[in-house]
């Protein structure tokens, strides 16, 4: 399954609208968040019919009259249900038809003003307590770290701290990614040029546990000033059985060595991705030990019982 978020800097221009339509057709997205459409509610149906007629559309025009966020999805592959819309985000659930997998997605287009973004951070904090598998993607209009901005101008540390406080509270982390390091540029020349990472894909621990192989790619911006963020989610038709730790494993002679080796394995990626990769490695190692030493335990018990009874019969 493929998701995408892209700040297109306006779709009123016929050229930009055609670029977006071609982009969707070429990449076969299941869900696409188009940010900064600048299309009024009264013109939405005309645009959808002309360029996106095979997709269903959800927008936040009721929360902001400038068509800031559109969500397009392929009804043949997914069902998207809106849960909450505000001027800076659309929060929804996504049901994948082929696998029955359900997750939450929040498409974000944050305001430029730091004070106005406070309502977004507050809303995300509230949402975080209501979801399991959750992806938050879009244009946050603020960097996560001073290293994410290349410019001759100074950084506003208070803006960064407010964003980071929200991420920490929501237990979100960047999904492992590749492609463009800086996702926005003012496209000016010389010393006036500014590069920033304003667009990102954030996920929670439940997401990493369920979709451990998912990743994001930030593509070149093209005629926009923002990079599209493309997320590949690899789904399985059957979810793996829940992992249960058995106390008897602790007494196994190889237990401590297995755990230490699995936890000490080298993993690249974000801190949260490394944590879950190490936990997964420990799980796989313990499951391997279980298969080698403890599988078929009922059969072994019955065999031991039969041997005991045979010995007792011979003793009489």
CA radius of gyration is 25 Å
Main sheet: strands, sense, barrel: 7 strands, mixed
Mean pLDDT: 88
Q: Approximately how much helix is present in the residues? A: 25-40%
Structural class of the helices, strands and pairings? alpha+beta
Distance between termini?
A: 68 Å
Overall shape: elongated
Element string (H = helix, E = strand): EHEHEEEEEHEEHEEEEEHEEHHH
Strand order of the largest sheet: 3-4-2-1-16-15-11
| Strand count | 16
Count, helices? 8
Query: Could you tell me the strand content as a percent range?
Result: 15-25%
Task: Give the low-pLDDT segments.
Answer: none
Description:
The chain has helices at residues 14-27, 41-51, 114-128, 157-170, 205-210, 255-263, 271-293, 297-314; strands at 2-7, 31-35, 56-59, 69-73, 78-86, 89-96, 102-109, 134-139, 149-150, 173-174, 177-179, 184-185, 195-196, 199-203, 215-218, 229-232. Helix 3 runs parallel beside helix 4 (157-170) and helix 6 packs antiparallel against helix 7. It has a seven-stranded mixed β-sheet, with no helix packed on it. Strands 5-6-7-8-14-10 form a six-stranded mixed β-sheet. The chain has 316 residues and is an alpha+beta fold. Helix 3 (114-128) links the parallel strand 7 and strand 8 (134-139). One of its GO terms (molecular function) is catalytic activity. This is Endonuclease/exonuclease/phosphatase domain-containing protein. It holds the Pfam family Exo_endo_phos.
Search tags:
316 residues; alpha+beta; seven-stranded mixed sheet; six-stranded mixed sheet; elongated; Endonuclease/exonuclease/phosphatase domain-containing protein; Endo/exonu/phosph_ase_sf; catalytic activity; Endo/exonuclease/phosphatase
């Amino acid at each position: 399954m493929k998701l995408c978020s892209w700040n297109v800097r306006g779709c009123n221009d016929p050229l930009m609208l055609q670029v977006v339509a071609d982009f969707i057709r070429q990449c076969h997205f299941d869900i696409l968040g188009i940010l900064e459409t600048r299309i009024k509610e009264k013109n939405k149906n005309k645009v959808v019919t002309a360029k996106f007629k095979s997709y269903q559309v959800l927008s936040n025009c009721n929360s902001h009259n400038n068509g800031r966020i559109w969500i397009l999805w392929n009804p043949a592959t997914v069902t998207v249900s809106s849960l909450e819309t505000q001027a800076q985000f659309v929060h929804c659930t996504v049901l994948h038809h082929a696998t029955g997998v359900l997750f939450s997605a929040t498409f974000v287009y944050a305001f430029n003003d730091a004070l106005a973004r406070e309502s977004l951070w507050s809303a995300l904090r509230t949402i975080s307590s209501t979801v399991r598998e959750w992806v938050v993607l879009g244009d946050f209009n603020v960097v996560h770290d001073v290293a994410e901005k290349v410019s001759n101008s100074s950084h506003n540390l208070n803006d960064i701290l407010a964003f980071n406080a929200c991420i920490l509270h929501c237990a979100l982390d960047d999904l492992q990614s590749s492609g463009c390091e800086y996702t926005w540029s003012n496209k000016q020349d010389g010393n006036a040029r500014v590069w920033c990472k304003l667009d990102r894909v954030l996920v929670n621990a439940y997401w990493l546990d369920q979709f451990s192989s998912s990743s994001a790619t930030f593509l070149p911006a093209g005629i926009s000033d923002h990079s599209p963020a493309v997320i590949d989610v690899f789904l399985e038709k059957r979810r793996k059985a829940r992992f249960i730790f058995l106390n008897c494993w602790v007494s196994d002679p190889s237990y401590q060595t297995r755990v230490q080796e699995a936890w000490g394995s080298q993993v690249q990626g974000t801190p949260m991705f490394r944590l879950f990769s190490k936990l997964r490695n420990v799980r796989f190692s313990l499951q391997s030990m279980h298969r080698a030493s403890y599988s078929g335990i009922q059969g072994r018990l019955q065999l031991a019982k039969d041997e005991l009874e045979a010995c007792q019969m011979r003793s009489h």
